[in-house]
Amino acid sequence: MESQLKRGLIEICVLAALRKEDSYGYKIIKDISDYIKISESTLYPILKRLEASGSLEVYTVEHKSRLRKYYHLTDAGKQQIDKFIDEWVTVERAYQFIKGDDSHG
User: Fold this and answer.
1) What's the rounded mean pLDDT across residues 54-77?
2) Helix (H, G, I), strand (E, B) or coil at 19
3) Across 56-85, average pLDDT
């Protein structure tokens, strides 16, 4: 899959993984790995970028005498998911065209 498209899908999957509850890196990977392959080396730069854009907030919690970073989905992150879902119709139409199943012709 083309890297920019995959990165965009991973970002939305990360945000979607945080819709129900705050989470931490390893659990995010586990939650989305059935849908799209992701490694820690891919996830953490994405989390930093999403935090910088205001889509996520980060806080720490002590877990087994260590600090664990948790990620929280902000309203901006929720809006990013909603925008992706709204725009998916266009992606589906392009996919049908690429496949040769374009019936809008």
Assistant:
1) 96
2) coil
3) 95
Which residue has tokens 């929280």? 72
Residue 68's pLDDT band (boundaries 50, 70, 90)? very high
Query: Whose CA is closest to 16, among 90, 82, 91?
Result: 82
The residue type at 24: Y
d(CA 75, CA 36): 24
Under 8 Å between Cβ of 76 and 53: yes
Rounded to two decimals, the pTM is 0.85
69, 25 Cβ separation under 8 angstroms: yes
SS3 (DSSP) at 43 = helix
Q: 57 in helix, strand or coil?
A: strand
- Specify the pLDDT at position 1: 63
Helix ranges (DSSP H) in the chain: 3-17, 25-32, 40-52, 75-99
Structure token digits, residue 86? 């709204």
